[in-house]
């Protein structure tokens, strides 16, 4: 444990990091940006006055439970984003707070490295679970590390178990991987602390229980849910090398891959290289210190969370690696601090690393601003199409189908939603039967259908938006 004065200073700096994180979100990012595809699905589950959109087996309910009170009280999406910005800043501060007694000044530096990455800034106010799983993972591992380091606070392990359960509510697989990494560490190095694993097992089981029950009801059990997730391309074990290079190429965006052509940015090499080199420095320089166990645990858990997505998940999105980044910045930050406190040669290396951190931080802010601008522009077009459908529906029960962005259109329209794989007779005929049953049914397309489509005989209502001229077809009742 670090001396009390350094611990107090680290916590004061963490408050400044959290406040700066919140302020940067409020200044840099607009609360009025429309929802993404995934956000619209999550929001629809708890938004009043609209049917819930289809919920795939790879999703969990944690993020919907977090935003439900705001929506149920009549809050707009802008209010949800403001709430999440404040909540994420508070959560970031408290999560890295748990590390202050172990890593001292490394804790606020780690909080800065994670929070001021473009992933931390952009997803702080997004209705997505990855950032929350990341922050909860940091707190879980921090509390376990403190228990293993001899911290006498009696609530370390129960609190870690509760937070692991909450992590499972947001991302069940991430919580499972984090728990497995902790169990592996205890089995290898601290077998006498096996009771910690019992408490974590209880927390993990309770966190997984809602997902298991829902998947058992809707998909015939977790095994079938995993099979269906694999069937839509979420789970795989091939193409690892390509995924690693793609994730490296996506370190400066966009928010979803793949990137074609694949261009690896210099900043991405600096980012990943800094994590590897400074984490190695931390493990080497801390090998004779009590901090080594905590740093090793954070490194093992971070690597396990990275392997989860680089090896077993075929989807390409930078946010998938957020939990790994959140854990790996802990040894990275401690390694940098240890260099600055070392001898002349080590201090020189530490100052160079600090200068590179400043450059990296500027690149992250610029990247976050660019990604925000792109998101606002792209989402505004789809949202405008949905608002046009809402006006046409006139408050009656409705369904909207589209080949592009159907969740965002349905959410803005307050209609049920359906994804169209095509606009031929086989896809349109089932929609016509719904129209005959009394619902107003709309098909929204970004371009005219082929002449053979049943929609070609209908007169569309054009909805011009920035970049896309949407065509709204209402099926006759």
Explain what you see.
The chain folds into 2 domains: 4-341, no CATH class; 379-474, no CATH class. The protein is 66% helix and 5% strand. A hairpin with a 4-residue loop joins strand 4 (461-464) and strand 5. It is mostly helical and 477 residues long. It has a 5-stranded mixed sheet with strand order 2-1-3-5-4, with helices on both faces. Helix 4 (77-97) runs parallel beside helix 8 (130-148) and helix 9 (156-170) runs antiparallel to helix 10. It is built from 19 helices and 5 strands.
Walk me through the topology.
Blueprint: H1 4-28, H2 37-44, H3 62-72, H4 77-97, H5 100-103, H6 106-115, H7 118-123, H8 130-148, H9 156-170, H10 172-189, H11 194-219, H12 222-231, H13 240-249, H14 266-285, H15 291-312, H16 322-340, H17 344-393, E1 398-402, H18 406-413, E2 416-419, H19 425-436, E3 440-445, E4 461-464, E5 469-474
Number of strands: 5
Radius of gyration: 24 Å
Low-confidence stretches: none
Number of helices: 19
Distance between the termini: 72 Å
Spatial shape: elongated
At a glance:
The protein has helices at residues 4-28, 37-44, 62-72, 77-97, 100-103, 106-115, 118-123, 130-148, 156-170, 172-189, 194-219, 222-231, 240-249, 266-285, 291-312, 322-340, 344-393, 406-413, 425-436, and strands spanning 398-402, 416-419, 440-445, 461-464, 469-474.
Keywords:
elongated; mainly alpha; five-stranded mixed sheet; 477 residues; single chain
